[in-house]
Design a protein that fits this description.
Elements: E1 3-7, E2 10-13, E3 18-25, E4 34-39, E5 46-51, E6 57-59, E7 67-72, E8 77-82, E9 91-97, E10 100-101, E11 105-110
Parallel strand pairs: 2-11
Antiparallel strand pairs: 1-3, 3-8, 4-5, 4-9, 5-6, 7-8, 9-10, 9-11
């Protein structure tokens, strides 16, 4: 069974940066795709970025060039580096892997 725990969210000004982490436990971490999703108030959850077990990354158009997804197999951790943050990036960010969701971490970008 997989458990995912996100951290690193917070309040940041427009143009700032944050780094989210997702600590994974359970053997399933070493397999398959992992991803970050986000859900803003009143909106549907949307894919932000994903990374395959082979290291191939995919990004939503809205974050390309600003966000970077990475994974550290030795630490069983998924990361999301978020730069040049915009107010529209405000949302709860969720880690997803092996059909399991983390609890989410709030990111608030203030103007």
């Amino acid at each position: 069974q997989v458990q995912l725990v996100e951290s690193g969210g917070g309040l940041v000004q427009v143009g700032g940066s944050l780094r989210l982490s997702c600590a994974a436990s359970g053997t399933a971490f070493s397999f398959g795709l992992m991803a970050w999703y986000r859900q803003a108030t009143g909106k549907q959850r949307e894919l932000v970025a994903s990374m395959s077990s082979g290291g191939f990354a995919n990004y939503a158009d809205s974050v390309k060039g600003r966000f970077t997804i990475s994974r550290d197999g030795a630490k069983n951790t998924l990361y999301l580096q978020m730069n040049s943050l915009k107010s529209e990036d405000t949302a709860v960010y969720y880690c997803y892997a092996a059909r399991t969701w983390g609890q989410g971490t709030q990111v608030t970008v203030s103007s």
